[in-house]
Structure formats: C-alpha cells, structure tokens
Amino acid sequence: MNDDNRPRCPLSHPTHHPHTLSPRSNPDLRFGCATCCGQKAIMEQSPHFYCTTCNVEFHNGCQRRTRKITHPYHLQHPLTLSYRNPETGIMFNSNVDSGETQSNTSDRGKSESLDIIWSQADSIFDECTWCGKDFKDGWFYHCSICTFCLDLSCAAVSPPLAIPNPKSHQHSLLLFPRPVPVPCDACGLIKAFEPIYACFQCNYMVHHNCMDLPRVIKITKVDNKYGKYSCRHEECSYVVHSKCATHENIWDGRELEWKIEESDDTEDIIPFKRVGDDLIKYFGHQHCLRLQEYDCVRDAEKQCQACVFPIDSQHFYHCTTCDFFLHEVCANLPRKLDHALHNHRLILDPSSPKDFKSIYCSVCSRASTGFRYKCSEIDCQKGAKFAVDILMHF
Question: Of 53, 263, 307, 382, which one is least surrounded by beta carbons within 10 A?
C-alpha cells in the first residue's frame, strides 16, 4: 500500500512528517490501544494498526479518533477523548501525551496509561452538552477545565468559524458557538442544535445547511386544485392543505373569519429598546444593559441569565447596576413565538423560577433554570403547565 493511502498515526504531527500505520492481523496489544487504552475488546484475527515510529498500536477504528481536539463549539479549551464505562460509571481518559518519545510510550504498561477522572456517583458526563443526547457507547470528548462534553457525532461536525462571502447575505457571517433557539431567516425553523451563523450588524441568523439554498426552484408534486388555506396578505404566497391546517396539533379550534388579525409588527415583539450608544433597556430587567466585548480573564466566571451557559461570545450585555448578563443573541430572543408543539402563541418568561425542580420543559422534560417560553392564553387547558426551555424548542 502506498504511504499516502495508509492511515496516519494520531500521535504524530498532522503536517510535519506524519507517521503512517501498518495493518496487523494478530493482536498483540501489550500496552493497550493508544487511543482507548483497552476499553474496547479486540477479537482474535481482527485487523488492527501499528505505528513503528511511536511503537504504539490501535484498534481498527480507534486510529481515526484524535486524542485531543480544538472544536468550534468550544474554542476556549481543548477537548480530550474519554470513555465512561456504562456498567460501573467510572470515567477514563488516556494520559499519554502526543509529544512523548518512543521510549516513554513503549516502556509503560496499560495500567499506567489510564487516568480515572470521575466516579459513578456523578452524572455530569452522561450527555452531550451540545445536543443533549446520552452517550451511546461510552465514548465522548470532554473539557478537563469545565464540564463541556461532545459526543462523537457532534465532534465530527466542524463548521468553519466564519463565512466571508455567503451566498445568502451581503456581509460576512460568524459561527455562534452555542445552541441558538431562534428561527433561521432562510427556512424559518428553529433547530437549536444545528450550527447557525449570525450577522449581528443586520440581526441575521441562518443555519449552516440553509446558506446555499437555491434562489428559484420548481415543485411538481403539489396539487393546487383542491381546497387549501392561504395567507390573506398580498405579498405572501403561503398556502397549506386544509387537513394539515385543521389538525388538532396545529389549529386551536377557533373560527377567525370575522376577527381582526393580530399584527406581528407591534412593539411587544421587540425584546429591548436602544437608549444610547451600546446601551439598551431590556424588557425582562429593571436596569439598563451595556454591550461589552468578552475578555477571557475578566469574564470567565460570568453566566448568561437566559440560556445559563457561560459568557464566552464575542459580545455580551451586562447590567450597569447589578450582576445580570446576556449573550448578544439571547438578548435578541423574540418576546412572542409560535411553536409547532402548541396551538397558542408563546411568550418569553424571563422571571427566575422559585423552585428549579418544579419547572420542566414540555419538549425535552428537563428542568428549566433559565428563560422559558410559556402559553399566552390564560384559559388554555394545558397552558399553565406548558413551558419550553429556550434551548430546547426546535
């Protein structure tokens, strides 16, 4: 096999003389797999790989997993490949440094290349911080400094930090490295865990997969000769099938033929008013908020009151009087929202819950500790209990 086609050793430098791996059919993992340290069993006659330069071996598949990564979703710290035993709950990560010499690696046994870093009593590493899903096979990347974790599928997604010349917008777009529960300006859908890019100058947000949507298309599968509902505004061509529009999960059962349509242009949709240069009056706080650039030393311990994630974006709002902080994108969350899982319009509730355990997101069933959307109808049968975490309504 040509060296160019051979898999590369994860311990070698990716561009400066990277080492190639040689396939082996006889397992001889005396010191454990250099990636998983023996946490994954290897069967007799199963192929695996060996690096003659580093004198280390890898299970088939483990050679594709990088020990440490710097990911766009968590730029402030590196992430380490880790394993959590599903049965015991004990968590391991390998302590072999990619900069070690050949002799250091080969002279050490498997038991010395493992670090136990968390016990069964703690469940903080049970799920991916980005998508919220449980780790399927025990493998994930985690930050040793904070509690940020990524499952392997989320870690495999590495969107660019910036799009200099996007097809869908006149300005450059920047990746927002947090789940963002706002509608995409291209598709109109809320997909909190899909990478989203922002132009803060224009308050424009777009999903990574929506930036290159075609401008003009022709659809031949829609039959328009049957009954349908259409938008009454002349500039809007939205139509929906009659059965789809009157589905019990979509329609609240009220006839609005003689009702005056609510306007979407009212001021109560806007979450804040600008009262000066970089100064706003947010509807959910009694004091004015000032836009400020993030400083990794000064602002490392600050937390956004809306999404309850650390303040780590390029800009954020902070209260001029007290310790109240908001990500710039969280400060732009709309005060009113139409959600696919509820018949009535939802309103943003920024109040602090008296008992965090008593407020659960109706979408994901997890306790909500930050801002939430709740039903705006007082007489709604399930409105009193329907609440949606701003990070979960997708």
Answer: 263
